[in-house]
Amino acid sequence: MIENHTDSEDDKKNSDDGPLLPRWFCWTWPGTTWGWVFWSIGALSLGFGLFSSLTTLITVQNKSGLVPLSFAVPGLIILGFASPNPFKQMMDQFVPGGISDGWNVDPTPPMKQSEWHLDRLEWDEKEGEWESNPLSRYEQDGPELTVEADGDEWVVNLDGNIEGKFSSEDEASNHMKKIIKKAESIDAQELIFTEHPRHKKFSAMYNATPTQFTARFFCHIFAVLFLTGCFLGLPKSTRIDLNLLFISLISIGTILIIYSYFSNKKVMEAWDTITSIVKFIDGGHNELVGQVRPITDASFEVLNVDGCKDEGWTFRNLVAWSWAYNATERWTETYTDSKGRLRTRTRTETRLVRGGSQKLDYMLHDGTGGILIKTPTFEDVDLGNSIWERNKRGKKGCGPYETPKRGGRMIRHEWTLDAIAMGDPTYVMARVKGRPHDEIPRGTVSENASRVHHTLMAVGEDAPRRHAKIAKGTEFSILKPKTSLFGNFGPSALLIITTIIVLMISL
Fold first, then answer.
1. Among 141, 196, 389, 488, which residue has the least CB neighbours within 10 Å?
2. What is the per-residue pLDDT across 186-214, written as a single tens digit (0 to 9) for each?
3. Nearest to 382 by CA among 429, 341, 340, 331
4. Where in the chain are the domains?
């Protein structure tokens, strides 16, 4: 729940009525049960630390040698992490289904291959027969056209309804071309998938600016200040003995800043790159979001996980996958402790026994058109969460169970499969270039000479400030909420500065 924000739900999704988030300050409260549990724990720790420090006048040490204010520090840290990022809450309003590997926003793209226009027919007068148009799969989704014989006539069906009857195949084919050409005038906003970043419903979100100061920022800032107060409350002789701790805190702050920089860099790479619409795509480095569809009519390679021929272990519609068989062994060993005494201990080891992976070309389709993705050229392919798991091997042709290597016993066997399948969403950051001349399907997409996306392909080549990758999911699946410069680096920078000051005055 975001406070200091009085806009209605409709206004939040319409940037014309004002900013979606306060510019300078926004306080947020937990939005889940577990969030409130952690927030309550943090509040209790903070309250105990403040109360104890006041009753001992802050500078008085208790018997354990700790300044009571130190109990407030972990409380503030917990409160900070329990307070949601307002930018994330805003994202959740636009993507109510949450962020996952799949489609989140309804209506979803067509999920049946019969709706993907993979084999629309056209009449070949020279050959005197109906042939599949190899360019139909590259066209926009819709209209759905079929043709069938009815006695001496040919019936053209449009979206399941009879469009017209024609006395010859040539007339029926030409009429279908006219319908497709007319569909070219449809605005791309009506064709792209609902979850495409260029959809008008997300324009306000992508133009939003993160609030400069948030509840998380203030909680973590005060945690650093309270920690500094704890150190200053200790006698100078005691602080000198904590030099190693001070150096550790400076190192932690430095690591956090470096991590925040590179993490934020990847987020901004996606936020700041305008997602291309396939129908109008040009060469160069592009960001793409769309559905996985077959690029050719060739049958997909059948995957039998670990060689198992069982139906439940067989997959036929995957374009990229990685499977692994991991086994866990437990054994008891004898060792000598620091005092020379013999001891026994139980140890557990999980090891990779075997696995396999593959990457195949596919078509990315965003509703306006499709483009070839050369998956094998990408080094960074994120397959998302596992789509399949087993803890017992199949019965047909499977590889053998792992045997103990440490003299113990095997306590667990696990097979997992991560994969991108037909119909899945994918996010692609890639360089778009022309396909080899002999691989380009002949003709023009939708009879429109300005459409060239069937002559292009996306390959895994990096560019300045652009890292080539394929990730399962839409853009929302890989994005993390933006934060302001203060929120991203403020607490870590303050931790370094205050620790150096305390270290210097303690020497």
1. 389
2. 888 889 999 999 998 888 888 888 899 99
3. 429
4. 9-104+202-271+482-506, 113-190, 274-465
